[in-house]
Design goal:
The structure is a single chain. The protein has about 350 residues and is mainly beta. It has a domain of about 140 residues: Thrombin, subunit H, CATH 2.40.10.480. The chain is built from one helix and 31 strands. The strands form seven sheets. An eight-stranded mixed sheet has the order 23-24-25-26-1-31-30-29, with no helix packed on it. Strands 14, 15, 16, 17 and 18 form a five-stranded antiparallel sheet that branches. Strands 2-3-4-5 form a four-stranded antiparallel sheet, with no helix packed on it. A hairpin with a 4-residue loop joins β27 and β28. It starts with a strand and ends in an 8-residue tail after the last helix.
Length: about 350
């Protein structure tokens, strides 16, 4: 099956951060050193500015009117033309640790920051007054890379924390009526979960294996070792995975393979091809093997079954690679995808199953 390209633009830097507004489709990219570009949904340049600081994370609000940026010692909220709306100081992160910030559809802005060597606080801001409306904290002995993962029913937000070889953890918070509560102590975990839009299951990739679990019970529903159909070996499937139907998911490998998986049988359906982006062989000096690949280095699903992909010619031009941002139409892959129920059944079941912790305000 062929996925067609709808728009593309050359990027002036290697994109370290990439985000897309869920309502407006506005796109933001940043370099590690703080060069920021904002693009329209058709990849026309809207604005460009420099932060003159190292960027850990960059996010964009659902309407595309604000950009959130995590730096080493503060979090910035900016307009899309680079004007500062809010500068929030924070304790410096350790060298290999980073926080996160995120905009949510209920006009709220979340951030996580250290308040002690083993204690981390979540603050929720109102995006009209930019005042803190709620806070809670939890303890964790490791300095981690943090990430917010909202549950589709809208009341739970998972907080994933990864510390490389030292492990990973997951905890859940509940936000309702301007009140936040950490619902459990951090649990030992692996990679960040990807929730089904209905909220009753999630996918996870760990060490080249795709697993499907129920939520909130976390019962294994199926798993599959992801292998290259060409070479019969693992192909670095440890990154992007996304539901495209109730029983189908698409994955991307380190070599740029796009694979469609039947979740009912946990078996490959097909490898999706990108129009005018043929797979080609390249030689790896590390393990002296040849592999078939595309030039994709980052990928992110956006609304209406489209995805963003960063393409690079680093295999041909390793000393000075060029980067291109493209929007691909993946509607050919999509089928029925059930959304969340109005009565929040999975959130209710989760709350009944956990021991409530934290103070919360």
């Amino acid at each position: 099956m062929i996925i067609t390209c709808e728009a593309q633009t050359f990027l002036p830097h290697q994109p370290y951060g990439l985000g897309c507004a869920t309502m407006s489709g506005t796109i933001v990219t940043s370099s590690r050193n703080g060069e920021v570009q904002v693009y329209s949904p058709s990849l026309q340049l809207v604005s460009s500015f420099e932060l003159k600081d190292k960027v850990d994370k960059i996010r964009i609000s659902p309407a595309g009117d604000y950009v959130g940026v995590c730096l080493r010692n503060r979090v910035l909220v900016l307009t899309v033309d680079g004007k500062t709306v809010k500068s929030i100081p924070q304790q410096d992160w350790d060298t290999y640790a980073t926080g996160d910030c995120s905009f949510f559809p209920d006009n709220r802005f979340w951030m996580i920051h250290p308040i002690a060597s083993d204690k981390f606080q979540i603050d929720v801001f109102d995006t009209k007054s930019w005042n803190v409306v709620a806070s809670d904290h939890f303890c964790l002995d490791e300095q981690c890379v943090f990430r917010f993962i909202p549950h589709p029913e809208g009341r739970l937000v998972a907080v994933w924390a990864g510390a490389g070889q030292d492990g990973a953890w997951l905890t859940f918070t509940k936000f309702q009526n301007d009140h936040i509560k950490v619902l459990q102590e951090p649990q030992i975990w692996t990679f960040p979960p990807v929730f089904h839009p209905g909220g009753g299951e999630f996918l996870e990739i760990n060490d080249g294996e795709l697993s499907r679990y129920s939520f909130p019970e976390v019962n294994l529903l199926g798993n599959q070792l992801l292998q290259s159909q060409t070479f019969g070996e693992q192909d670095g499937f440890d990154g992007f995975v996304q539901y495209v139907a109730d029983d189908k998911a698409i994955l991307a490998s380190a070599n740029g393979w796009l694979r469609l998986i039947d979740l009912s049988t946990m078996s490959p359906i097909d490898d999706a091809s990108l129009q005018e982006e043929p797979l080609r062989f390249w030689h790896s000096d590390m393990d002296e093997t040849d592999a078939e690949s595309t030039d994709i280095t980052q990928i992110q699903l956006i609304k209406d079954n489209h995805f963003l992909a960063v393409h690079s010619d680093w295999k041909d031009n390793p000393a000075n690679p060029n980067y291109t941002l493209k929007i691909w139409n993946a509607t050919v892959l999509s089928e029925r995808l059930t959304g969340p129920a109005a009565d929040h059944p999975f959130t209710s079941r989760f709350e009944k199953s956990v021991r409530i912790t934290g103070s919360g305000t």
